[in-house]
Amino acid sequence: MDQSVEITLALGTNIGNKLQNLLSCLECINEQIGPIHKMSSIYQTEPWGNPNQDQFYNMVISGGTHLSPIALLRNLKNIETDLGRMTTEERYQPRIIDIDIIYYGNASINVSEPDLTIPHPFLQDREFVLIPLKEIQPLKLHPLLKYLPSELLNLLGEHPQADIIMTSSGLINLQNS
Fold this sequence. Notes:
By secondary structure, this protein is of the alpha+beta class. The protein is 32% helix and 25% strand. The strands form two sheets. Strands 1, 2, 3, 4, 5 and 8 form a six-stranded antiparallel sheet that branches. The chain has a two-stranded antiparallel ribbon with strand order 6-7. Strand 6 and strand 7 form a beta hairpin. The longest helix is centred in the first third of the chain and has 15 residues, at 18-32. It starts with a strand and ends with a helix. The mean pLDDT is 88.
C-alpha cells in the first residue's frame, strides 16, 4: 500500500498499571503501525459486557498507516500479545490491553477469516468509545450509520459517568518527559 490511510483505534486496559499499559501501547503503535496524529484524554469507565471486573482506562487515537486492514489487525494482535494479553475463550474478560479498529478511512469491511469488521460492529453501543471519539473526531461520520459521535451518544440515552484520568495534553507532556 503506497498511501497512508487514516485509522481510528480504541484502547482499553483494566489489569496492572493501566496508565503504563496505555503508554506502552501508544509507543508500540507509533513504532509498528504508523504515526499517531490525535489522542483523546484517558477515561475511567465501567466494564462493558462483564461487570464483574475492575474499571477500565479507555482512550481513542487516530493516526496513519500503510498497512492493509488485515495486516493492521494482525499487527495490533501481535502488539496485544507482546504487551502481555492472554487469550481466553470467554469474551469481555479482564485484559492488560485491548486494541480495537474503529475506522479504517471511510471503508466498510467485513471479513470472516480473520474476524474483521470495520467500522467496529459495537461502536454505536459503547460510550467508552464514543466519548473519547467525540473528543478527537467530533465531525467524523460513521460510514454506515451516517451519525456523528455526539449523535450516536444521544441515541444511547443516559450513559454512565466517564471520569477523565488524564487529559490528552497531560498525556503528551508525560510521553515527552
